[in-house]
Amino acid sequence: MDPQNLSKGQLQMLKRAFEAFEIEAEHKIPTAEIGTVLEMLGKAQSASSLAFLMDEFDPWNTGKLDFDTFKELAARYLTEEEDPNAMQHELREAFRLYDKEG
């Protein structure tokens, strides 16, 4: 999906996911957390897929993505049919489990 076509609910969901891992002073998310975020969104990726994504979205190996880049990456895994409320519920549950484990 084109990031420009994301619904307001999808943008809010992605912003919450981003903010959970954001390095506040930099307003960026560590690339090492992208796999975790995608998994929490119900879009788990293999290690090789994540490596391919990082080559594409972090070609200079900075180890960080800003929100616009993250949004572009995550938009690939969202569809128009996805219910933002259901995704938010799933995301909250995943964060709850992640907090217990991490």
UniProtKB/TrEMBL annotation:
Keyword Repeat: yes
The keyword Repeat belongs to this UniProt entry's keyword annotation: yes
SUPFAM superfamilies for the chain: EF-hand
Source organism, top-level taxon: Eukaryota
EF-hand domain span: 45-80, 86-102
Swiss-Prot/TrEMBL keywords: Repeat
Signal peptide: none
PANTHER family found in the cross-reference section: CALMODULIN LIKE 3 (PTHR23048:SF0), MYOSIN LIGHT CHAIN 1, 3 (PTHR23048)
Protein name: EF-hand domain-containing protein
Native organism: Nesidiocoris tenuis
